[in-house]
Write a structure and sequence with these properties.
InterPro entries: Peptidase_A8 (IPR001872). With about 180 residues, this protein is mostly helical. Helices cover about 60% and strands about 10% of the residues. The radius of gyration is 21 Å and the shape is globular.
């Protein structure tokens, strides 16, 4: 009886630890998403306010603040598809929030938080900037040689993609469980 009671206590403690861990992981997701989103929005407001008539060289011509408005996707592709890109972004936000319910890994929390911030940051521009809702142009202002002008949201999306690829190579699912060879064995 005592052994059974001890096993139950251990199982309850484990469930409590899992619940606490999941709470911390979800909090990480929310904090990362919110902080990165706010940083993106704030830097775009500052760029529009201060870069209207001039570029600012931060590291010579290697790193320049240069204001542009992008109607398309990455590399200014699909400029005639702004509405479609906006609708895909809405679907992406919904999908990230859907998958975030299963978070069981801190790395995945960072990845999905950054992805949500990046997609939502650029979607905010498409919703609220001219020329019209769902057709707005994204504010880009970071320029390096031989690369299209980009913004904080784009950085978030790319870092998220890297983390997602890393987790896939490590065989760790969104739920934090290891999948792959070890699971088969």
């Amino acid at each position: 009886m005592q052994a059974a009671r001890g096993a139950s206590l251990t199982d309850a403690e484990t469930e409590s630890d899992d619940a606490g861990s999941r709470t911390r992981i979800r909090a990480t997701f929310v904090v990362v998403a919110l902080a990165a989103y706010l940083l993106d929005v704030a830097t775009k407001i500052l760029a529009v306010e201060h870069l209207r008539e001039r570029d600012v060289e931060l590291v010579g011509s290697w790193f320049v603040l240069h204001l542009t408005r992008n109607a398309g996707a990455a590399f200014s592709t699909g400029t005639e598809l702004t509405l479609v890109i906006s609708l895909v972004a809405v679907a992406a936000v919904v999908a990230v929030l859907w998958f975030a319910r299963r978070l069981g890994s801190t790395t995945w929390a960072w990845a999905l938080g950054l992805l949500l911030a990046g997609v939502a940051g650029n979607l905010t521009d498409r919703l609220f900037r001219s020329p019209a809702p769902l057709r707005g142009h994204v504010i880009d202002f970071l320029m390096v040689p031989n690369w299209p002008v980009f913004n904080i949201a784009d950085i978030c999306i790319n870092v998220a993609a890297g983390l997602i690829v890393l987790q896939a190579f490590r065989g760790i699912g969104i739920d934090g469980r290891r999948h792959g060879r070890e699971q088969a064995a």
